[in-house]
Amino acid sequence: MHDRLPPLTALRAFDAAARHMSFAKAAAELNVTPAALSFQIKGLEEHLGAPLFRRLNRAVELTEAGKALAPGAAEGFDALRRAWMATRRSLDARTLTVTAGPAFTAKWLAPRLFDFAQKHPDIELRFSASLRLVDFDRDDVDLAIRFGMGGDDAGVYSRVLVREWLAPMVAPHLAERLRVPADLLKLRLLDDGNLDFVRPPCDWAAWFRAMGVADPPEVTPQFSQADHAIDAAETGGGAILGRISLTTKALQDGRLVIPFPTALTTRAHYRVLCPAGAEQKPQVQAFLSWLFDNVGEFAAHDRQMSFIDAGDVGT
């Protein structure tokens, strides 16, 4: 038995057939005829000196040799695909693909994208609103904005973007009724449920304890998306313990106000990440520069607040 590799086209045909367990579906994926695909696989079996498939009446199944080859073939083509995509991205100085959470995209990024487009008309900006863990190779993403407690960012460029804080926020007409923090208990307290992972907790109960209101409040309704809770608060549906990262525009426009300027700070924060070295690419540099220039607007709100660390509140 010799070690010379068979033709790549034959291995590609085998990989597709092994994934689909169908010559017809594999042929459709590769845009060839079933006869042509069968010919490629037959040649691969002759090269190996053993069958890779058992041909049944209307189906195929892998032989032991096929089962041994299939995982390596799949991994090999996946590695080739990733390498090809990475090489294309390294040569592309015009396209920039950014991923961020749906709420941050809707409430902070999207309203400001026209400004970036005006300043950088040569850059084609693409967005993916997602919370899943990013794989820069698999997902064809250049830059990720993620919120959390931080983690192991070895091998990537990582920089803190926004330090988060939370404070009660309501529609202006509701603020007129509020004199002391306990008055908030007369309103419906909205919860987006997206900070359940934060430790120590940074929620309504913690804020009321910080303000000396002992009785834990009933929080309802709960929203699965933070931007939906913000929308409900803007229309007068209740009070939200608003995150400054998501509510800056609403506060600037007067759609929300902060009746009591005491905020909880949390160790959770936004950070921006990209593959190590990719931060030097012209389009990534341009976006990072624009991004950090714009997050400076949070400082204006910071100066109006007093802060209490959620970790100092207790339970």
TrEMBL record:
Q: Which InterPro entries match?
A: LysR-type_TF_proteobact-type, LysR_HTH_N, LysR_subst-bd, WH-like_DNA-bd_sf, WH_DNA-bd_sf
Q: Which domain of life is it from?
A: Bacteria
Q: Which GO terms describe its molecular function?
A: DNA-binding transcription factor activity; sequence-specific DNA binding
Pfam families registered for this protein in UniProt: HTH_1 (PF00126), LysR_substrate (PF03466)
Q: Where is the HTH lysR-type domain positioned along the sequence?
A: 6-63
In Gene Ontology terms, what is a biological process of this protein? DNA-templated transcription
Keyword terms of this UniProt record: DNA-binding, Transcription, Transcription regulation
Q: Which family does it belong to?
A: Belongs to the LysR transcriptional regulatory family.
List, alphabetically, the NCBIfam families matched. Answer: PRK11139.1 (NF008352)
What is the protein named?
Transcriptional regulator
Q: Which organism is it from?
A: Dinoroseobacter shibae (strain DSM 16493 / NCIMB 14021 / DFL 12)
